[in-house]
Write the C-alpha cells for this entry.
Amino acid sequence: MNAKKKGEKERGTRGVIQKIIAFCLVFVLSLSITTVFSQKQTLAATPQKAIYILPGYMESQLFSKKFANVPIWVGSGLVTEIGLDALRQQSEFTNNATGIGMSAYADRKKDPAGVLGLFLPMITSLKTSLAANGLSDEYTVEFFSYNWLADLNDTAKELAADISAKGYSEIVLICHSNGGLLASAYISQNEENKNKVEKAICIAAALWGTYTALEPLETGAVTLMDGTLPMGLLESGYDVFVKPISKHWVQSWAKNSPNTYQLLAGNEYVSRIPLLNRTSTGIEAVTNAADYYELLKKSPNINSTLLSGGHRSLKYLREDVYGEDILHKWEGVDLTMIGCEYGFITPVTAVYHQSGAKEIYDGSIYNKEGDSILAALSMKGDGFYKWVNLPGASHVAIILDPRTLCAVNDIILGKPVYSSTDTSLFPATSSLSPSIGMSDMIRVEIKSSDPLVFPTLTNAGIGIKVYNNKGSIVARAQGSAQFGFSLNNFIYSSWSTSENATNIICYIPKSGYKLEVFSTNANRLASNLKVFTITLDRSGGFLSQNEYKVSGANLLTGSAFILDTGKSMTPVAALGSKVVMISQLTFKQQWQFSPHIFEMIQGTAITPTVSGADAASMVASNYSWTSSNQTVATVSTDGVITAIAPGKAVITAAAKDSSFKIESVTVYVLSSE
C-alpha cells in the first residue's frame, strides 16, 4: 500500500472511529441525564453569573400535551404525532396561520441537555473547566431549551424572564445555529439585556440566515438534522421507516412555524448571494428584500403572513428587530464566532421558476463553502468579529468536537483561541482545495411521474444506489428515504411538485463512483425518467448539461441505467431500458468583474469592467442586473451603475444562460457635498 492510499485509509478510519465514539458518548450519557440532574446540589451561595447555552433549530425536546407529556421530538410520541398527520388530523406541532396554537411544548426541567443529550458533553466540559479554575461558585451553567417552532421574539422574552427570575447580573451566551438568532433577538430588545452579556460565543450560528430553511417548507425535508452525527448514525432507522411518510407532516408544521421563516436567508445574505429565478427571458437574480419576499410569496408552500406580514414574520425580525443589520446589534459585545468555513457541500442559494402566477421550487445550488447546512458567509458575516475555523466540523457535530469544547472554555477563561489546521475529520471523498472546489463533483437531476412520498403497492418510486470503485454500496435512496449521502459528503434531495411527482438532485464525485437508478414500477416498460448530468466549475456553477430520456427498466432488477462518473457523462442503459439524448448545453463561466469594489460620488455613473476568457462574448444583455439597495445605487439593464445617495449597495450580475454564474461588485457612494 503506497503512502497516499495508506494516509487516506487511516484518515477515513480515524474519522469513522471518532464519530462512533462521539455518538456512543452522547447516547450513553443521555441515558444518565435523569440521574445526573436529579442529584442534590451542594449548599452554596447562588452565583450571580451564568453561562447560557442556546441550542439550534430542532435541538430542544418538545413534549406532548395530548398524550401524557411524552417526548415527541425526539421520543416515543413521534410515531403518534406522524400518525395524526397521516390520518389528516392536526398534529401537535402545527400552528394556525398566524403562527400560534400548537399544543407541543418545551420543558426546561425535563430537557436539561437537548435532544439525545446532544449538549451534555458541552455542559460537562464547562462544569469541569469551571471547577478546575475555581469558578464554580461564580458561574452557573444553564441549558435553555425552547420551542423552535415558535416566534423568536417571544422566545427571547422567555430568555430575558428566565435570566431576570434567577437574578443573574452577567451572562455568557453560547449559541449554536438558530441559537445565534435567538441571542440576537435577546440583545436587540433593550440595552439592559445587551449590557448583561459579558461574552458571546456563536458556534455555526445562522446570523445571516440560510436558504436551507426553505427545505422543510418546500420539500418536507429535515436536512437541518439529517446527516449530523447523531441523526446520521440513526438514518438507517429514521430515514427508512419514518421519512417516507413524514414529508407531509414536516410541511404541515413548517408552513405555520414563525421560527422556520425567521431562519431563512436574511437581507444581508440575499444582497450578497441572491435567490435565483428562472423566467421566460432567462435567470434573474433577486438581491433586495422586497423582491425576495414577493417571489417567495408566490410559492404555494409559503405562508405570506409569516414571511413578510406581522410581528412574527421574517421581515419583522430582520427589519424591525435587527434593524436590517444583525451584526451591528453586536457592536460593543465580546463576540467570538466558531465554525467550519470550507469543505462540506452546502446549499449556497436556491432556484425557483415561474409557472403561471406561481413560483415553483427547483432545488438548491451547492458549493463547498460551508458546514453542510450553513454557508460560511452566514456564520462569519463580513469578518468584523473574531473567527475560529474548525475544518471538518459539520453543522451539528461541531457541538461534540473536542476542539470546540476547548475553544469555548478558553474563551470564557480569557485565553487566546486559534483556528485549527486539522482536516482529518473530513470524509476523504472529494478535494478540500478551493482551487478545485466543486469541479471534482457531478450533479445529477432526475424528474419522473413515479410517486415520491406515498408509494403504492405497485410503484414504490425511484431508487438510487451509489457504488465506490470496489463495488461496495456507500449510499442509497428510495424515494424520500436516503442513507449514506451526507456521511460521505454527497448530496441527495427529493421533493414533489405539481409538475413532477418526483424531483431528485444528487451530487457525487466525478470519478471513482457509479450511480445506478432503479424503477420500482411493477410495469417496468412504463417507466420514464428525465435525466440531466451536469459538470461544475469550482464555485458550483454549471459548465455543461446533458439531458436524456430514459424509458423502461430491467424486468427483474428494475435497473434503468448506470452512470459511471469516471468514464462518461452519458448514462448506460440497463437491459430492458433505453437511453436517448435530448440536448447538450455548454456555458460560459470564465468572466468576472475587476475591480470588485467601487467608491462613487453621488450623482455619478460607471459601468463595471468584465474580464476573463469569456468576457468578450458576454455583452450586457447576457446578464440580469440587480441592486441590493436602490436608494443608494441603481443599475440599468445595460449594467450602468448610478450613485443615488450615500451608503452601500451590492450590484449583482447573474448570467441568463442557466449556468448559475453570479458575480457582484460592492459600491460605496460618497456625498457630493
Remarks:
- Residues 1-44, 227-234 have pLDDT under 50 and may be disordered.
- The longest helix spans residues 3-31.
- The chain has three domains: 33-267+321-341+369-412, 437-586, 592-670.
- The first strand starts at residue 49 and ends at 54.
